[in-house]
Design a protein that fits this description.
Blueprint (H helix, E strand, L loop, with lengths): L2 H27 L2 H4 L11 H19 L6 H11 L8 H17 L13 E4 L5 E4 L2 H26 L6 H4 L16
Antiparallel strand pairs: 1-2
Helix pairs in contact: 1-5, 1-6, 3-4, 3-5, 3-6
């Protein structure tokens, strides 16, 4: 399996699920905007930030693996995320960020991330921590996927904590494409 085969569908599936959860929250609560300021713990970022950072991870992962410079739009997204507690935005804003990340994925060739599988990669974080990874595979396994899933799962947990009725089927909705006929539970 190539890095493109692993990351691109994973990002797409989970961003699509995240958008569906937000729409479900709007249907169930009638005011998903109010949920965007919700947090799991006082020292954690709110839902709005988790959404933005999940989207940021898609852009970051693709660009790091392609050894591309980050565009200014990534700084904007990062700063929006950092300010999410004070300016959570709206459901429309959150869905627009997800749509932008999906459009970025659509813009990439099918093998976009494969050239970096064996190339060293430096990961320098804003707080001064730096990691030197032997190759893109380690970056994908040890950083890109865990960071992405952390923010997606935290968003899921916040929505559940706030009373949105989500279940495992919402989390892995993409699996229903593989459902063996006659094996779905009744009801």
């Amino acid at each position: 399996m190539t890095l493109s085969d692993l990351l691109l569908p994973t990002y797409r599936q989970m961003l699509t699920a995240l958008a569906a959860w937000l729409r479900k929250a709007e249907e169930q609560t009638g005011n998903a905007d109010a949920l965007l300021a919700a947090r799991l713990a006082p020292d954690m970022f709110p839902l709005s930030t988790q959404i933005r950072f999940a989207c940021l991870q898609v852009h970051e992962g693709g660009r790091r693996l392609r050894h591309e410079a980050f565009p200014d739009a990534m700084d904007t997204l990062l700063n929006e995320g950092r300010q999410g507690g004070d300016n959570p935005g709206t459901l429309a804003d959150a869905l627009a960020r997800i749509d932008e990340a999906l459009a970025y994925l659509d813009s990439l060739p099918a093998d976009a991330l494969d050239g970096s599988a064996g190339r060293p990669l430096a990961l320098e974080l804003p707080m001064g921590i730096a990691f030197d990874l032997d190759d893109g595979e380690r970056y994908a396994r040890d950083w890109a996927l865990p960071q992405f899933y952390f923010h997606v799962m935290t968003a899921y947990a916040i929505l559940r904590r706030e009373g949105v009725e989500l279940g495992k089927a919402d989390y892995v909705a993409h699996m229903f494409a593989y459902l063996r006929p006659g094996t779905a539970p009744a009801g």
